[in-house]
Amino acid sequence: MEEQKLRTLLESMTLTEKIGQLIQVPGNMLNARGQELGVREDLGISEEILRNVGSTLNVTGAAQIRRVQEAYLRQSRTKIPLLFMADIIYGFRTVYPIPLALGCSFEPELLKRLCRATSEESVAAGVHVTFSPMGDLVRDARWGRCLESTGEDPFLNTEYVKAMVEGFQEGLSQEGACRGMASCVKHFAAYGAAEGGRDYNTVDMSERRLRQEYLPSYRAGVEAGCEMVMTSFNTVDGIPATGNCWLMRQVLREEWGFDGVLITDYAAIAELMAHGVAADKKEAARMAMEAGVDIDMCTDCYASQLEGLIREGTIRQEQLDAAVWRVLCLKNRLGLFEDPFRGAREEAEKQVFLKESFRSLAREAAVKFSVLLENKEGLLPLAPTGGKSGEARTGRIALIGPFADRKDALGLWALHGDREAVVTIREAFSETEGLEFAWCEGCETILPEDYTDLPALAAQGERKLWSREERNRQWEQAMELSGTADLVVLALGEDTIQGGEGGSRTRLSLPGDQMKLLREVRKRARKVVVVLFAGRPLVLDEVKELADALLLVWYPGTEGGSAIRDMLFGICEPQGRLSMSMPRSLGQVPLYYNAFSTGRPYDGHTPVRFFSRYEDCPNTPLYPFGYGLSYHSASYGPVQLDGTVLKRGETLMASARVTNTGDRAGSETVQLYLQDVTGSVVRPVKELKGTQKLWLQPGETKQVCFAITEEMLRFYGKDMSYQAEPGLFRVGICADSSGRLEGEFVLE
Q: Could you say which DSSP state residue 290 is in?
């Protein structure tokens, strides 16, 4: 629709029709089946407002969306179509590895491809907007939504958010294309820094830290052209984000120039009352509108209060019109006035859902995002017969563990994925020619002591718990198999329901009887390979000691079983590098590599009390950020700089020679780290500033080069100006964040 016609439409709308555009309701209010993910309550929205609501959430499927849209438009005076939004986080029907795993790729372009494929499936199913990507930086493994983040590093998160927005929205602006879906960057801002790792909890930090570490990823999404931003549940400087004028108007709108739609998270306007900054719904609605919030997700605050606020002059008509205009512009950019269904067709769904190219992409992703943490004596890869790869001897393989045959091992936020399409490890093993194995579960993933709500879920029929007889039978079978096997593949991990929104934990060990199972299997089996499923970093100190090999596959998606089989037997090698540091102990979290030094830094060796250290645990992680093994091995030569001085506007080249010292080809993830030695404010001990992937044949050496510019050295200084300060910098080109910084240069 031409802009002038859209302006005319806005001017013709009644006050009720305008307010309706700013309200999002769950699907059941529109006689649709949807997935409600917030606190359910009766919204109490009037029939008149309901006939004019602007959007709904988590209603998907071409047939259902066409039915709902048709019914809505029949009774609509303005004929403004509904927006259909959904939580499509890491795949639609075809599910890819969780975002925390995606962060282990160090390959933003691959995330772009995944989001493009996700968008194709979603658009066929009628979805207009996805609540993704999540730009939240996270450093506390207790937080359940770790699985939705791409990790602890500001540089990588920025690159990933940009790539994901571009992938989701590719083709969105092409007239009549019906390609791409609008991307909603969330949760603005700093949601990943909730105190104690407890969801929805307080966030309080300095403006410098907020701008330096937490805001860059959201800004990258805005600069990539995201159509929508979602407010976070938490406070920022004592003010809940949804009512925070400084954050939403000054930073997001004015400084960054965001002119898209600002939507709340589920019921966040009403939660201003629970936070204690609004006395009632009227005050909550006023605060949100003054902060620039356009869409009220699943409360009646706007529906019941905006008209009164406008009539009394507390909210100006111009404020309302500006919000409605942004919503109408988004609908217009999506082409909904020309095609309210935007190409949603059941025939299109059949063509694209789980098509072979998407399944192949899912398998590629699961390989590139899995992290090999241990491989003692080069046990992996295996030959299909159970011996070491390339050897002729045979062996008996036992596949044991609660994740050996789990169809629901997709992670909690794969809301629209087809679980029946998931390939499990057992299924992949069964399809492998010449591979003989026996299998059993051995134990459950989780017990009531691990999850407070488990008994209630079981009572409601949403979770099946084993009987005592079944537990004994499975345990005895596991002991028998492990005692007769030459090698045990032990599939362990977090239960799916332990992660995701509301999935905060105070224990980061393997739940249930899984550690007991590992200990007993270890006593009986000659070799043990642990395949670990997880949605967050776990404490793996004992697992590290007991396992001969440890492969972290996160929640690997639709093709997880096939990818795991391929990695174990050497068809391909795991390529992931950790996107979050893995702690030795829960007491270390929050834990991250790019921390500040202290006035008494500990070198890890001096046995003196008065340093910044723990008495019972090293400061260092069990596995550092950026860490990951491969089936090849590599050595790094010293850093070479083409100069010792960097001048503003110029470039300094840093290089190093990387050699494959192993006997098979492989992918090496090379990482560039910099340290600003002295600044007007304390600077991190090191920061990731670049990555490259090399494919190396056995014995091959390649020289990798990174360009260092003044822009890479900028930070918020003592006066809060964003600039690079002259002085000494150190450079490291390393395999992970524990590597040494060897080169030095001066910025003039």
A: H
* DSSP assignment letter at 249: I
How many angstroms separate the CA atoms of 349 and 355, rounded?
10
Query: Dihedral of the CA atoms 363, 367, 371, 373 (nearest 10)?
Result: 110
Contact 126, 61 (CB under 8 A): yes
Catalytic residue among 87, 265, 405, 676: 265
Q: Is 653 left (phi over 0), alpha (psi -120 to 50) or beta?
A: beta
d(C-alpha 747, C-alpha 281), whole Å: 54
Structure tokens at 591: 């834990």
> Is the pLDDT at 386 greater than 50, yes or no?
no
What's the rounded Cα separation, in Å, for the pair 462 and 57?
23
Residue in the block written with tokens 């440890």: 550
Task: Give the model confidence (pLDDT) of 64-123 as tens digits.
Answer: 999 999 999 999 999 999 999 999 999 999 999 999 999 999 999 999 999 999 999 999
Query: What CA dihedral angle connects 248, 253, 258 and 259, to 10 degrees?
Result: 100
The three-state DSSP-derived secondary structure of 207-226 is HHHHHHHHHHHHHHHHHCCC
- Residues 379-384: what's their mean pLDDT? 88
Q: Does residue 265 have an active-site annotation?
A: yes
Phi, psi of 659 (to 5 degrees): -120, 135
The count of other CB atoms within 10 Å of the CB of residue 249 is 15
Helix 514-524 and helix 468-484, axial crossing angle in degrees, nearest 10: 30
Sign of CA dihedral 87, 93, 99, 103: negative
Burial of 604 (0-12, 13-18, 19+ CB in 10 A): exposed
What is the spatial distance between Cα 144 and Cα 503, in angstroms, rounded to a whole number? 4
| Orientation of helix 215-223 relative to helix 154-169, angle to 10° | 30
Please report, as a single letter, which amino acid is at residue 709.
T
Does residue 236 surpass a pLDDT of 90? yes
CA diameter of the chain:
85
68 neighbors 28 (Cβ within 8 angstroms): no
Res 346 pLDDT > 50: yes
Over residues 612-627, mean pLDDT: 96
- The pLDDT, as a whole number, for residue 17 is 98
pLDDT of residue 34: 67
Kindly report, residue by residue over 98-108, the tens digit of the pLDDT: 999 999 999 99
632, 662 contact by CB (below 8 A): yes
Q: Collapse the DSSP code of 50 into the 3-class scheme (helix H, G, I; strand E, B; otherwise coil) and give the result.
A: helix
Mean pLDDT for the chain? 95
Strands of 43-168 (E only): list them.
55-57, 83-86, 129-130
CB atoms within 10 A of CB 638: 11
Across the range 518-532, mean pLDDT stands at 97
Q: CA nearest 567: which of 630, 623, 509?
A: 630
Q: Give CA–CA dist 209/197, Å, rounded.
A: 18
Q: Are strands 743-747 and 727-734 parallel, antiparallel or unpaired?
A: antiparallel
Confidence band for 605, pLDDT divided at 50, 70 and 90: confident
Radius of gyration from C-alpha coordinates of the chain: 27
Q: Is 294 helix (H, G, I), strand (E, B) or coil?
A: coil
